Amino acid sequence: MSVIELIVFWAAVALALIGAVGMVSARNPVHSALFLILNFFALAVIYLLLSAPVIAALEILVYAGAIMVLFVFVIFFFVSPGQRFTLSYSLPLQNTLAGLLVMVLIAIILAGLFFGGVFSPAEHPQSAAVMETTLTSPQELGRALFSRYLLPFELTSLLLLAAMLGAVVLARRSGNGNGPGGGA
Amino acid sequence: MEQIVAYSLVLSGMLFTFGVLAVLVRRNPLVMFMGIELMLNAANLAFVAFSRHLNQLDGQVVALVVMAVAAAEVAVGLAIIVAVYRRRRDVDVDEVNRLRG
Q1: ipTM value of the model?
Q2: What is the pLDDT along chain B (101 residues), one digit of tens a residue?
Q3: Which of A15, A104, A151, B89 has its CA 20 to 30 A from that of B57?
Q4: A28/B30 Cα distance (integer angstroms)
C-alpha cells in the first residue's frame, strides 16, 4: 500500500461516514438522497482500492445512477414546493435512545472485529502480482458468473422480472380512477 | 489482516449501524428506504473486503447479486410508497396503520 493510496482511502472513509450521518440527520429527503449519493461515490473509491473495479463501476452505474435517480424522482413527484420538513419523533427521548443504540452497536461491532483478529497482522502476505491478475480482471469475474455461479445469475434475472411486474401492478392507476388497488 | 481490509470492515459495520438508525428513527418512508440501501451497501463492502482478503472472486459475485436484489427491492418498495402516497398526501409511517384500503 503506498502512502497516496492510504490517503485516498482515509478520505473516502471520511466522505462515506459524512454521507451516512448526513443521510440520517437531514430534514429534507432531497438532502438525504444527495448525502447518500456522496456515500455511494466514496464507496466506489473504496471498491477500487480493494481491487474490485467492476463492482466500483456498477456501484456508480446502478446505485448512484439508477436507484438514486428513482428515489429523487419519487421525492420530486410528491414534495410540494415550499413544504416545511420537520423531524418528528413518536417516542419521548427517541433521539437519546437512538444515540445510545448507535454507541452500543458500534461498540459491539468493533469488539467483535477486534477479538475476531481483524487487526492482527497478516500471517502470509500475498504477493501483489497474484492479487492483480485474479481479483481485478473483469474476465475472471465474468467467467465465474457464467460457470460456477450460473444458477444465482439466472435466479437474479427471474427476480428482476418479477420485481418489474410487481412494480407495474402496484403503481398502476386502476381503470375507474379510484386510486390503486384494482377492484378492491 | 491487511490494514485496508480491516478498516473497510470497520467502516462496513458503522455504515450498517447508521442504516439501522435511519430505519428506526426517521418516519419518512423514503428516508427509511435509503437506510435499507445503506445497510445493503455495508454488506456489499464487507463482501468485497473479504474477497480481497481471501484473494477469491466469490465475494465480488455475491456483491453483484446483492446489487440486483437491491434494485428489485427499490422498484417494488417505491411502487408501494407511490401507491400509499396516492391515497393520503403526507405519509408518516406511524399513521399508515390500516392495511385494508
Answers
A1: 0.90
A2: 688 888 999 999 999 999 998 988 887 888 999 999 999 999 999 999 999 988 888 899 999 999 999 999 999 998 888 888 777 666 666 666 665 54
A3: A15
A4: 11
Contact B2 A23 (CB under 8 A): no
Do the chains contact at A52 and B60, CB–CB below 8 Å?
Answer: yes
Nearest to residue B57, comparing CAs of A153, A38, A114, A148? A148
B41 touches chain A (CB under 8 A): yes
Closest chain A residue to B10 measured between Cα atoms? A110
Model's pTM, two decimal places?
Answer: 0.85
**DSSP letters for B37-89:** HHHHHHHHHHHHHHHHHHT-SHHHHHHHHHHHHHHHHHHHHHHHHHHHHHHSS
Grid look-up 450498517 returns B16
Q: How far is it, in rounded angstroms, from Cα B85 to Cα B36?
A: 20
Do the beta carbons of residue A160 and residue B64 sit within 8 Å? no
